[in-house]
Each structure stands twice: as structure tokens, then as C-alpha cells.
Write a structure and sequence with these properties.
16% strand
Length: 423
């Protein structure tokens, strides 16, 4: 039987629309797609412009994996309620755990039922995926006893390399030093000299930065804060080198002071210098900010003010009690606000945040509140931030480690390792 070119075109069109109606064997949902048809040519042959839809799994998981012992959850979505799920060993294809999908809610905007697959009770290790009737299966993920510890070690290796080639920024170094101060017990010490390897990597960066004749040493307040903070943390390991760093920080600060205004980076530098050196000239300059903090409820949005506030609260030097009260209340209120907003920010099926960088910034703020107040609720929320960024999101995309600063991830993951050690 012969077909004309016109008949063949119509047949192709019908086949295309038939394929569009198929839903990846029930395992994924077409989120976007566009078809346009125009009639052109001598025989009015249809010309079809078709954009392939984005397909995402209906079972959303952290693609980097989960700790074998600890809370483990996935998000299940479907046009109809999903009742059960199965955890399947990827290598053998055998079901190792079965559970009930819980907390099923209906999202009218998306016309989807949303539920939670909780497989916390399963504590085995290996490579797995989740599957559910009618909606299909998740992407593959791992379960490991030392899941977060392995992620932390990989990040520390990356940071070490970037310290060696000086591709890391002062802003990232400040966050790394916070991790060294808050969670030194979880950081590796491979050479057994009792100094965390991460802190030694930062020491190498400082030495290379000061002695590199081809690449000039930075002259900014963030660099001053880095040197002063490092000197405070490093003094118990090498007081002579720590003192040299502090003296250099003071020298650079004096050089910059006359041309700098009253801003967040200068405040952070002052708090680090005051804690490390205890000079009243630094204390008096800190107090010049007091009115600004008392009349301002949004200063914690700037990381330098946030970290400076944390350092001022931690210093053993004489401090202004009223200013400490302002900082404590601000950090506590910020933590409560973020805890209330977190469900929307990291909603697994809606796109209601401002992207990876902003999410890591909010997680950084909540980490500070958690360090000061220690809330199990905050710790759980921060782990959910990681799950979201590592694949449990609307687009089923793992943003880690390509999107966002490694230092921000390292601070969050070190916190999870610290929590695991407590238990």
C-alpha cells in the first residue's frame, strides 16, 4: 500500500501526539512541553516544532544518599493517592523494605497528591531506589553508615586543593574558620599532630598569600578578619605564628581604617581583632555601631554582620551587655523566623525560593542560631536543606556540589556529623 507525502505527514503527526500522551511508563511526569504546527509548502505538509518536555521522577530523593542510621524520607507525588512504597536493592532487584506513604495532602494548584515515604527503620547499606505502584521509581541513592563523614572528607580535600592554588576567596575562608571553631572534633587529623587538617590548609593559604610575589596580597577588611580569626584559633598550636598573623592583621587594618566607612566587613574585622588582641581601641570602635544595631532588624542579612555578632558573643574580653542582648535576641528571632518559613523555602514540589545561593545563605543564618541555642528542630530543618539541594526538589536536580560555595556546604555537613557523634 502506497502513501503520499501528505498522508505520511499526517500519520507522523498522529504518532507524535500519541507519544506525547504517554507518560514514561508511569515513572515520570512531563513538566513542560510545547507543540506548534504550521502549514507550509506546495502540498501543505505540516511542519511541527516540538520542544521535548522535561521528565522528572514522581518519587523524589536525596541523590547523594542518606546516613544508614537516621531519618530517611522521600517525597511521593501522583495524580491519585499512593498507598505504599518499596525500597529495592539496585544490585539484586530484591525488595528489602516496604512501608506506607504517610501525610498525603492534595495540592490543588498542581493537581497532585503529595505524600512521604519514610524508611528510617531500614538501616542496611548499599545502593537502592524506591518504587511505588502507578507513579514509578526514584533515582538511585546510597545508604552508608558514614554518609556525612564521607561527604565532609571529600569537601575538605576540595578545599585543600583550592587553598593550595589560592582559588578560594576570603569569604569562603571565614566560613571554613567558623566550621573549625564550632566543630573541630569532626575534622580529620590525618598526620596526627592534633591540628585539624582543614585549619592547616588555611594556614598554607595564608602563608602562600603573604609570600606570593606574582599575585598581590588582598587588602580588605575581610582579609583582616580572616587573619585575626585564624590567629585566635591557631594560638594553641603555634603561638608564634598566630601572633605574627595577628600583628599583620592589625597592620593591614590600620592601613585601611582611614579610608573605610562603617560597614559590615569592618565590624567583622573589629570583632575578630578585639577577641584576639583585647585592645580597647577595637572595643570602642565596635560600640560605635551600637545605635545601628538597636534600630535595625535586618542587619543579619549581611554575613559579615552575622559572623561578627557571633564572635562578639563568644569573646572572653569585656563586652557591652546590652549589645550582647541585642545580638542574642536578633539571632534567636531570625532562627524562629527561618524555621517557620523553611517549609515553603524547601518545598519539594513547588518552586518558592530564590535559588541555591539564597538557600545556603538562609541555612547559614539558621546554623548560627542553632549553634547559639541548639535546637533539635533547627538541626532537622538544616538536614532538610541539604536533602533539597541534593535532589529532593521539584526538578529532581542535585545542585551539590556544583552550585553554591563549598564552604557553606561544609559548615552544614560538619554540623550533621557532629550531631551523629553526639548520638
Amino acid at each position: 500500500m502506497r502513501y503520499s507525502r501528505k498522508s505520511a505527514g499526517i500519520l507522523s503527526l498522529l504518532l507524535l501526539f500519541n507519544s506525547i500522551g504517554m507518560n514514561a511508563c508511569g515513572q515520570a511526569t512531563a513538566e513542560t512541553g510545547h507543540v506548534s504546527i504550521s502549514m507550509t509548502g506546495m502540498e501543505n505538509t505540516p511542519v511541527i516544532n516540538y520542544t521535548v518536555p522535561t521528565l522528572t521522577p514522581n518519587v523524589l530523593v536525596d541523590q547523594q544518599g542518606y546516613a544508614a542510621v537516621g531519618e530517611k524520607q522521600a517525597v511521593v507525588k501522583g495524580r491519585q493517592p499512593v498507598e505504599t512504597f518499596r525500597l529495592v536493592d539496585r544490585e539484586t532487584g530484591e525488595m528489602v523494605y516496604e512501608g506506607t506513604v504517610k501525610q498525603t495532602d492534595y495540592n490543588g494548584e498542581l493537581s497532585l497528591y503529595i505524600g512521604t515515604a519514610d524508611f528510617t527503620d531500614y538501616t542496611g547499606e548499599g545502593e537502592f531506589y524506591l518504587e511505588c505502584d502507578n507513579v514509578g521509581r526514584s533515582l538511585t541513592f546510597s545508604l552508608k553508615e558514614d554518609h556525612y563523614q564521607e561527604l565532609l572528607e571529600a569537601l575538605c580535600t576540595d578545599v585543600h586543593d583550592r587553598c593550595q592554588d589560592r582559588s578560594i576567596t576570603e569569604d569562603e575562608i571565614i566560613t571554613l574558620l567558623e566550621a573549625c571553631e564550632w566543630y573541630p572534633q569532626v575534622l580529620a587529623d590525618d598526620n596526627g599532630n592534633d591540628i585539624p587538617d582543614l585549619l592547616e590548609s588555611i594556614a598554607d593559604w595564608l602563608e602562600k598569600t603573604a609570600n606570593d610575589t606574582e599575585k598581590p596580597e588582598p587588602e580588605n577588611m575581610c582579609y583582616v578578619a580572616v587573619m585575626a580569626k585564624f590567629s585566635y584559633l591557631y594560638q594553641k598550636y603555634d603561638v608564634q605564628y598566630a601572633t605574627q598573623c595577628l600583628q599583620h592583621a592589625s597592620s593591614v587594618y590600620t592601613k585601611l581604617m582611614s579610608t573605610s566607612g562603617r560597614d559590615a566587613e569592618k565590624f567583622m574585622a573589629l570583632t575578630e581583632l578585639y577577641r584576639a588582641a583585647g585592645l580597647y581601641t577595637y572595643r570602642n570602635q565596635i560600640l560605635e555601631y551600637k545605635d545601628f544595631f538597636e534600630d535595625n532588624t535586618s542587619y543579619l542579612e549581611e554575613t559579615a554582620y552575622l559572623y561578627g555578632s557571633m564572635t562578639y558573643l563568644a569573646t572572653r574580653q569585656p563586652v557591652d551587655v546590652d549589645l550582647c542582648t541585642v545580638f542574642m535576641e536578633s539571632i534567636r528571632n531570625r532562627g524562629e523566623e527561618l524555621a517557620k518559613r523553611s517549609h515553603n523555602m524547601i518545598d519539594a514540589v513547588m518552586n518558592v525560593n530564590n535559588g541555591t545561593e539564597d538557600l545556603l545563605k538562609r541555612a547559614e543564618e539558621l546554623s548560627c542560631a542553632n549553634y547559639v541555642l541548639y535546637s533539635y528542630q533547627y538541626t532537622e530543618i538544616l538536614e532538610d536543606f541539604l536533602h533539597y539541594l541534593m535532589g529532593r526538589n521539584r526538578d529532581s536536580v542535585s545542585y551539590y556540589p556544583e552550585e553554591g560555595d563549598a564552604a557553606d556546604y561544609l559548615l552544614l555537613i560538619a554540623q550533621q556529623v557532629s550531631l551523629a557523634d553526639r548520638h
